[in-house]
Amino acid sequence: MNRASPRRDVPPPTRLLKTPEGGARAPERVFEVICLLALMLPLLLLVVLIAQAFTDGRERLTWEFLTSYPSRFASQAGILPALVGSACLMMLTAVIAIPIGVGAALYLEEYARESRWTSFIEVNISNLAGVPSIIYGLLGLELFVRAMRMGRSLLAGAATLSLLLLPMVIMASREALRTVPQSTREACYALGADRWQTIRRVVLPMSLPGILTGIILSLARAIGETAPLITIGALTYVAFLPDSVYSPFTALPIQIFNWISRPQTDFHVNAAAGIVVLLAIMLVFNGAAIWLRSRFQRRFS
C-alpha cells in the first residue's frame, strides 16, 4: 500500500523556532520600556508640580494661615472659612449621597429583576459617571438654586455635589455587592433567613470594605471640585463661618481659584499653600480608604 508523500510546502516544526532568543524578545522589551515610560512620565510630572507648589507656598504653611480669615492683604489672609465650608459641604454631601447611592445599588443588585427598565437605568448610571462636572453645576443652579429656592447656600452646594457623586457611589457599591458569592446567599436562605436578613447580616458586612472605599474615594474627588460650586454661585470672599445649611459658603478650591486669579504675586503664594493643604486632605482621604479596606478585609477573611 502506497503511503501519502509529505507536503513540501509546510516546513517542519523545527524550522519555526530558528529565530534567535534575543530577536524574539526584542519587541517585548521595547513594549516594556514604553509601558514603563508611560508610568514614570506622569508620576514625574506630578512630583514636579507638587514640589513646585510646596516650594512656592511653604512660607505660608503656618497655623495662622489655617486659622485666619481672608483679607485684602496677602500676608494676613487665611483659609479658615474655606476649610470649614469644605468640611460642612462634605458632611452634607455624604449624608445625602451615601444612603441614596447604597440603597439604589442594593435595589438594582438584590431586588430588581432583569428587564428593559433596569437595563435603561444601568446604562444611564454608567453614562452619568462620565458627564463633566460643569453640567452638574448647571443642573444644580436650575434645580436647587432657582426651582427649589434654596439660594446659593450650603445645602444647594451639597445637593449639587451629591448628584455628581451618586453614579460613582452606585457603581462602586454594586461592584462590592457582586463580590459576595451567590452560594453565601443561598446558604442563608437554606437556614431560614429571608432576603432582608441575608442582606443586613451577611451581604452588607461582607461588601462593606468595597463600599467604603468607593465612598471615600468619591468624596476625595468631590472635595476638589470647583466648576459646580462656581456655577451655583459659591462666594469667593467669605469673612464668616457658616452657621446653618442655608448660609452662604465658600470652599477651599474656590478660595484657591480666587487667589490664583489675582495679579499680585503674594496671593499666588497663598494659592500654592492652599493647594498643598488640599492635597494633604485628599491624601488623608485616600489613606483612610486603604486603611479601612485592609482592616475590614482582615476582619472578614
Tell me what the structure shows.
There is one protein chain. The protein is mostly helical and 301 residues long. It has helices at residues 21-57, 63-67, 80-111, 116-128, 133-147, 154-178, 182-190, 195-222, 227-232, 252-260, 265-300. The protein has one domain: MetI-like fold (Orthogonal Bundle), CATH 1.10.3720.10. The protein starts with 20 loop residues before the first helix and ends with a helix. The relative contact order is 0.13. The model is unreliable at 14-19 (pLDDT under 50).
Essential attributes:
301 residues, mainly alpha, MetI-like fold, 71% helix, 0% strand, globular
Concise structural overview:
The protein is mostly helical and 301 residues long.
**What is the strand content?**
under 5%
Largest β sheet strand count, sense and barrel closure: none
Question: What name does CATH use for the topology?
Answer: MetI-like fold
Radius of gyration: 27 Å
At CATH level 2, the architecture is Orthogonal Bundle
Oligomer: single chain
Structural class: mainly alpha
What is the residue-averaged pLDDT? Answer: 85
Outline the secondary-structure elements.
Elements: H1 21-57, H2 63-67, H3 80-111, H4 116-128, H5 133-147, H6 154-178, H7 182-190, H8 195-222, H9 227-232, H10 252-260, H11 265-300
Helix pairs in contact: 1-11, 3-6, 3-8, 3-10, 5-6, 6-8, 7-8, 8-11, 10-11
